[in-house]
Specification:
By secondary structure, the chain is mainly alpha-helical. It has helices at 4-32, 47-78, 83-92, 100-131, 139-170, 175-198, 211-224, 260-265, 268-283, 286-308, 312-317, 325-340, 344-365, 368-381, 390-396, 402-413; strands at 205-207, 231-234, 245-248, 255-259. The chain starts with a helix and ends with a helix.
Length: 417
């Protein structure tokens, strides 16, 4: 598989160059419109707020470009640069049996990646986000969150990796099908366990107390035929001033969650409209479609990995001279993003179509005008740019650009005639 080495280099460097090029386009477009609020937003967003959004967007992109370079160099260092091979050789001196040897090699590489990414994460949180008034995370809370995340990775991710390595070693050529079944089970378990047991480790979730808003939401849920285990408010204000809302859980265990920061900014009709949009994703089966796609992609990915593990040249082509199950997993996880990056525009296009469909659903069950107003407020308060580069937006944006989306909602809200 000598062809894999140049193909991987081309894919990795190509993806990085495209990322950097798109970021440069976005920065230039945002800077070009920095001094003037787009006409449709002039009544709701001041020039100061618009300028802040432009500066925030450009600052994030500058940090993201540094992250792109670091990730590219780290991927090359761990693969073709021999990083995985070195860690593997060092752990082999301990004479640990499989799969424990593999688990320790994977854990070591994970720690290396975490340590390399830590300085940029700290910069984003305590310099960039703080500079624009969004960060509320204290150093102590940051450390506690990090330790909790590491503990979850050890107690939840560790057994999954261990089981996967055992299957790769002992389940024969069809190990990947068994692994797919295992990962599928874990995926559904996490969807069930996350809202009730895992998310509360990081945030406090309390039932919505506002009786008027609660009644309004319950009426909307009834109209839409949606059953949930309750409406909750999460104390996101401990970490950030950004606002959001989301659904979590599966089946009859679904929860509706509002950031407390969002409820502070939106009026009741606007909250109702935002929720109607989110309900649209469920009623139109967008969530199910995305889940099925994720299941299919996992199946295809593991099938591909199953084939690659049987190719002796796979390991040497990516910088690991000694074939092993853990090396195959690491190489696959590090190399795959370089190739899947190029299907990002298709995923983004599909997601934007779903967002428009959910907007239409919200228009039928709530107010298009209130949803448009809520989105303007969210863009303003989250300092999201109103003037993205069209190519950048087409490639990355999972939601329609604000101008197109809000203009469409306002047109739907306008009285006929």
């Amino acid at each position: 598989m000598q062809w894999l080495t140049p193909l991987f280099i081309v894919a990795l460097l190509g993806a990085s160059l495209v990322e950097l090029w798109l970021a440069r386009r976005q920065m230039a477009e945002v800077a070009r419109h920095r001094a003037e609020v787009p006409g449709p937003f002039a009544a709701a967003i001041t020039l100061t707020e618009h300028t802040k959004a432009a500066d925030y967007t450009i600052a994030k992109l500058r940090v993201a470009r540094i992250g792109t370079l670091i990730d590219t160099l780290l991927t090359l260092a761990l693969t073709l640069g021999g990083g995985i091979a070195v860690v593997d050789a060092l752990w082999r001196h301990t004479r640990l049996p499989q799969p424990w040897l593999g688990l320790m090699v994977i854990a070591t590489i994970a720690v290396v990646i975490q340590l390399v990414s830590l300085p940029l994460s700290l910069w984003r949180t305590f310099r960039l986000e703080a500079r624009f008034g969004f960060n509320r995370t204290t150093p102590g809370l940051y450390v506690i969150d990090l330790l909790k995340a590491v503990a979850l990775a050890v107690f939840l991710g560790g057994p999954l990796i261990l089981a996967t390595l055992l299957l790769m070693e002992r389940a024969g050529v069809w190990w990947w099908a068994w692994a797919w079944g295992l990962w599928l089970g874990v995926m559904f378990f996490m969807a069930w366990a996350w809202p009730a047991f895992i998310a509360p480790l990081f945030n406090n979730f309390s039932p919505l107390k506002d009786p008027q808003l609660k009644a309004r939401i319950e009426a909307l849920l009834t109209r839409c035929g949606f059953a949930s285990k309750g409406v909750f408010v999460v104390d996101n204000s401990r970490r950030s001033s950004h606002g959001n809302a989301y659904f979590t859980g599966i089946g009859r265990h679904k929860r509706i969650v509002f950031f407390d920061t969002l409820l502070e900014r939106l009026a009741h009709p606007e909250v109702e409209a935002v929720l109607a949009h989110e309900l649209g994703h469920f009623r139109l089966k967008h969530v199910r479609q995305r889940l099925l796609l994720s299941i299919a992609m996992t199946f295809a990915g593991l099938a591909l990995l199953g084939w690659l593990t049987s190719q002796p040249g796979f390991y040497a082509a990516l910088g690991v001279p000694t074939p092993s199950a853990h090396a195959a997993l690491l190489l696959f996880m590090l190399a795959l993003p370089a190739f899947t990056f190029f299907i990002t525009p298709l995923s983004s296009l599909w997601s934007r179509r779903h967002e428009f469909e959910a907007d239409d659903f919200a228009t039928r069950n709530a107010s298009a005008g209130e949803l448009a107003t809520a989105l303007v407020k969210l863009h303003r308060d989250n300092a999201s740019t109103l003037t993205p580069d069209p190519v950048y937006a087409a490639f990355y944006y999972s939601h329609p650009p604000p101008m197109a989306r809000i203009s469409r909602l306002r047109a739907n809200a306008a009285p006929a005639g």
